[in-house]
Amino acid sequence: MFTKAKNIDTAFRHIRIFTLVVVCGSLTFCCFAIYKSYQLVQTAQGTVYILAEGKVLDAYASQRRENIPVEARDHVATFHRLFFTLDPDDKTIAANVSKALYLADASAKQQYDNLKESGYYTGIISGNISQQVQIDSVQVDISVYPYHFRCIGAQRIIRPTSIVTRKLITEGYLRTVSRSDNNPHGFLIEKWETTENKDINIQNR
To answer: What is the CATH number of the domain that holds 185?
Structure first.
């Protein structure tokens, strides 16, 4: 009789341990499932699917500070390409400069006005001159706001009789502004100035 009672007590303890293991395992599995579901939702919320030419592309959201150096360098490079790429066509010049001036403050407008008053653009049109710019490097210091930048590049002035290459160095500051269609990076160039612009090569055609 005592043996039967002891067996029942042992069986009960085994059942209780087994039940506790099952309950703990279920709780652990539930917690893991909830965590993974939350993680999946967070990932899905940070992903945008873009349809381009029949292909689905993933775009991931991130904090802007992670992209500031890249966006800042591209903003500066885009401005310089628009401002300094010129062809002997007044409408093309006006269109490029107009786009460039959305990316900078009055300091760029002042340089444009000075060039216009000096007859620079008229000379390009009448002389059938094209001007191109190649950006070699853009250095941006994001440790201090507004962000200081230094742009180094080369101008190629293509005339009917020669090609002149000039070294171009400009400096300025970047201030954050609202993004728009005209200013997709959300930066504005301030206190922009050309610190060096001299001939480094002249090639006869």
So the answer is: 3.10.450.230
Measured distance between the N- and C-terminal CA atoms of the chain, rounded to whole angstroms:
117
Q: Identity (one letter) of the amino acid at 1?
A: M
- Domain residue limits at 189: 63-204
Q: What is the pLDDT of residues 42-78, one digit of tens each?
A: 655 555 555 555 555 555 555 556 688 999 999 999 9
Name every residue whose Cβ is closer than 8 Å to that of residue 96 and which is 6 or more positions away in sequence: 82, 83, 85, 86
Contact 158, 129 (CB under 8 A): yes
CA-CA distance, 83 to 31, in Å (whole number)?
58
Burial class (CB in 10 A: 0-12, 13-18, 19+), 82: buried
CA 176 – CA 39 distance, rounded (Å): 32
